[in-house]
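ping. complex inputs:
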Amino acid sequence: MLDWLISLWSDPNTRWILMGCTLLGLGSGVIGSFTFLRRESLLGDTLAHAALPGVCIAFMLHEVKSASLFLIGALAAGIAAVLCVSAISRLTRIKSDAAMGIVLTFFFGIGTVMLTHIQHSGSGSQSGLDKYLFGQAAAMVTSDVYTLMGVSVLLVAAAILLFKEFKLVSFDPGFARGIGLPVSLLEHAMLILTTVAVAAGIQAVGVVLVAALLITPAAAARYWTHRLPVMLAFAGLFGALSGASGAAISTLGGSIPTGPVTVLAATLLFVISMLLAPERGLVAKTLRHRSMKANYARSAAERSALNPAEGGNSK
Amino acid sequence: MNRESKQSMSVAPLTVSGMTVAYQKKPVVEDVSFTLPEGKLVALIGPNGAGKSTLLKATLGLVPAIAGEVSIYGDTYKKMRSRVGYVPQRESVDWDFPTDALDVVMMGRYGHLGWIKRPGRKEKELAMDTLEKVGMADYARRQISQLSGGQQQRVFLARALAQEADLYFMDEPFAGVDAATEKAIIALLVELKKAGKTVLVVHHDLSTVEEYFDHVLLLNKKLIAAGPVETTFTPELLHETYGGKLAIVSASGRQTLVGEQ
Ligand SMILES: Nc1ncnc2c1ncn2[C@@H]1O[C@H](COP(=O)(O)OP(=O)(O)O)[C@@H](O)[C@H]1O
Ligand SMILES: [Mg+2]
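pong. complex structure:
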């Protein structure tokens, strides 16, 4: 085990990938906390699935595989998907969750068709584009890792600098508008940052599962604290741990895709949080309830011992 | 200070003219015009769905109006924003949000702080002071989901006080609060009035209007009447506002009005 960890670190290539995935998890967890609190979890999924045709088009146009090019394609597709969702919910009676479901599957359908087409064409078969479904961190090259680092720095810096504004807009947008904050600008900024996080994550985690890296760490972090800064820190930490384990385990060789491992790690952290977190965790809640019951029973017994008449009555 | 108070003597804190708001095709607030007198507690009353919240939000620019103008201390809302405080309806936010009472109150200072800058010691002290004023100092570090409805309402009120405004808008601050909170809020309103502030309150308990307020606006899509309580809060005008939904009960010689909820 230890040998394995040491060998991970001593191989410079693996070290880079490990760092990239860790940073990606950190940034996604932090920015995903706002997505989670604004109850827009499905939005992350929509953005991720919509990214697939964006990546495919980017590849078809340039016939090269490059993380930053795909990032742009994924961003553009994500923005198109969001515009579709808002148009549908504005122009029809369909609610936005149903609109997201429609757009998500439609974009993913197109993306899958494009992907199949690319796989069967000459240059495409060795493109490794199919790895974008479930992610393959091991396929990343140094420049991809640099892109991931830049994205993580952007996400974390935005969350820190605009912390107060993001918090107020997430908690009480009406009040925020009242005091003169440009609420829709800030909402769009959060949306773009979420899209960036998703787009950056698809190479390592894959379009199918990358949304989990936004939401699951945030949901887990919520169990540990009542304070937003602490929640962001926990979500970043959980995201980083998930990303690191995904990368580490998928470099074991074979063809274990990174995405599922990353998501399993995040889910494990979530389950641990749900059970063991102090105060909000299931175990703490059950224990608290039990001790309250016991206390109450004891004091009731004391009362009836002091006042036997009452005890007899209650029979 | 002196100059400011003299200046605002001549200009009404709020003038709304021709306000019309529609969500879909039909307007829910139609051609409403009124002026608020300075230093008064004003109740905005009308049946459910009369457009009270909508009128408030449109005045503050939170929902778009299809027509109408708003003047606050003789200028646009944009310019006078720092003199306006707002208490939204309590149900309008998610009380499970990870934050505590003190932090919510400090949000009242964000407008003065400007971008990126964090609230510091000064803001914290002011927030503690306002929490003290609403009797919530002991709950400063309590997560907001662990407060009762009345306590949550007090926190919202404290946040508005922290804005240190001159004109306040409050949407149903008495809705679903306990008697102690209602008393605390009224004491606070009276204090605000003494300090020369103007407060517009959406209110639905007709039985307390005469006791709490100086001035009323009667709204049912259109403005039915506006004026001092003595002359405007009359059975005839109330009937016109509430239509058949109003029962007038005479109890112990004092007329009590019960609006349908
Ligand atoms: N966001 C909204 N979208 C569509 N209709 C709305 C919206 N908010 C309120 N309404 C409608 O506008 C009318 C006035 O609502 P509101 O201002 O909340 O009334 P009040 O506060 O007096 O009870 C109601 O008929 C309500 O159904
Ligand atoms: Mg209302």
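Chain A has one domain: 2-304.
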